[in-house]
Hints:
Blueprint: E1 4-5, H1 7-31, H2 37-64, E2 66-67, H3 76-98, H4 104-127, E3 131-132, E4 136-137, H5 139-163, H6 169-196, E5 197-198, E6 204-205, H7 216-267, H8 277-294, E7 297-306, H9 308-315, H10 317-333, E8 340-345, E9 348-356, H11 359-374, E10 377-379, E11 382-384, E12 387-395, H12 402-418, E13 424-426
Helix pairs in contact: 1-2, 1-3, 1-5, 1-6, 1-7, 2-3, 2-4, 2-6, 2-7, 3-4, 3-5, 4-5, 5-6, 9-10
Amino acid sequence: MTGTYAPALVALSLAVAIMASYTALELAGRVSDRHAPKRAWAWLAGGAVSMGIGIWSMHFIGMLAFHLPVPLAYDASITLLSMAIAILVSGVALFVVKRPAPTPGNFALGAALMGAGICAMHYTGMYAMRMSPPIVYDTALFAASIGIAMGASLAALWLAFKLRHKQSRLAVLAKLASAGVMGFAIVGMHYTGMAAAQFSPDALCLAVDSTGGMSNTALADIIGVATFGLLSVTVVISALDAHFAAHSAKLADSLQAANEQLRNLALYDNLTGLPNRMLLEDRVKQALGRAARERGAFALMFVDLDGFKPVNDRYGHGAGDELLTGVARRLSACVRKSDTVARLGGDEFVLLLSEISAPEDAALVGAKVLSELQQPFFIAQAEVGISCSIGVSVYPADGPDAATLLIKADAAMYHAKRGGKNRCRLFAPEMALKPPPAPAAA
């Protein structure tokens, strides 16, 4: 017994396949949204239903396009089973593209499961006709339909993965083109499977007389409503969700940038970008805790510039700011990445040297700082020379807390200034603990 096809329904089945494929590509972006994992799982569940019904609808529209010389109908329970298989297959596909970076093995396994599921849906749907005697399948065409199903599944998974986060106009065109390729592949599998079916000349469709059998007209109505209604709503909701998700992500990025800016204003010097007093105090507390646990030592170096005020007076505050920025760069180059260079304000800087083995280590760094700052600066198209005075205190020898260490480092710095400037002094008990002197002219 030879069957025929209604060209209009064949074209309709292709259109439904393309629409279902485009829906799948849209859903791929929603199920892989890492910013909203709960919503992504909801999209996977709802998307599996929508996409599965779309694939199933294409299959049964193709079945409706097929005519035999005898009346045809479809068993309701078996038809619903084929729909359930399509939904399950869609869930597997969306789960594969949900992964952040699927491996080739994941793609292969997903394609095999998806292809096998599509074939199971197709041949279960054909079984719903309940032909007597049963349908016999051509082995070569049957195998070809399975191969096409798995190949189409692999292509669909790969395309969905590549296009899942694309939202530009060019991406929409790419999705449409990809949906066309996927649609033709799905239709190719279906009609290859139909071609594999061989009907006996005296075959009858038992579903026509069975309870729950559905006529072609009734089934066409159900398929039409299910396909065009559900898939259209799914695509629209997916597009709106993508738009709102992108807007929310933009707002979140803006909020994060604002928080980062506020954090920088609170913890870093606006001019030099160095840690300010607040962040320095936090770093010193961390150093205290670490040194206490490990019975180690660290040093604080109070650095005050010599001759900064004349630069401000002669060249202006803009040149002074440029000089301070240059000093900050040179000080940072004198220490390790694990150390801290902070600006307290004006021309005062503090260096936190973590994990030193002896006070002499701080003295070596102090000598390096003196040498670096003695090199001329080129400010406002002029060569400017300055120096600095450095005072050093060491934990635990010079104090048990940050306040004491800073006071003693300041006292040592004051002693260095009184001793002629441009020198580094380690704190000694005989040094008077005096506050920093008023800014001098030189």
